[in-house]
Amino acid sequence: MSQSPGPSGGRRAPVFAGEPIDRGVSEQRVRDAAWRQSSRTPTSAAETVVEHVRTLLERGALKAGDRLPPERTLALYTGVSRSSVRVGLRALATMGIIQSRHGSGTFIADGPPALESKPLHFLAALHGFTRDEMFEARRLLEVGVVGLSARRATGEQVAAIAEEVTSMFASLDSPLDFLRHDIRFHRAVAAASGNPILASLVEMLSEVFYERRRETVDRACDLKESAEMHRRIYMAIRQRDAAGAGEAMNRHLQLAYEAQLSEERGRVAEPAGVGGALP
Question: Is the CB of residue 242 less than 8 Å from the CB of residue 151?
């Protein structure tokens, strides 16, 4: 965002995201133009800010890694108060669209897309999502994703998956560390699918399962068997065996579900190995 003297020595209209506004255009007309660029009708002042940023992203006026203008400039362009701008920016941060960097400003996120898991927690509480429904959604998603990963994973991505398997075997005596590497394994598999939307969904679901599983993971009995199941999935991906990877993932998740039920009841499931199958 910049301003420069006009022909009469006054200020020119602001430059937003590198695009100069024509001379002589009033601030009100600037705000009206920004409003018309949105195809949706905001229902609050804060949503006006969200819609304005969305429109700029769609037009290509803002890109990943770009710095947002200061609050006062956003307030000018959207016609809302600075307090409403702050609320809108918090909403964008929650959605993972922007990131604040201490001492540098606010930027459009430039990393892989991420979905916040908190809304899913609220939806689950509000609508009473059952354990079976959550598991079914996860199984259908991850079994499909691992098949894509087996076909598309790069050498670097296969190596990242292998690293998490190795870390699981190295943390057999630390259930919580094991669980962290377990979750990272599933995220690495999802990233290897080559589909950022699917990877974001797996990221969101894995966070939900992690929050629940860490409360009972100390009761897991056979972590070595669980690590071995992950190794089988990894080997299928490495061998480009999409069908085998899907079967291994489906088997693993089914046993993980049974293990979680067992842990929450405070007893070990049978047969041996089931109790240690983590997410």
Answer: yes
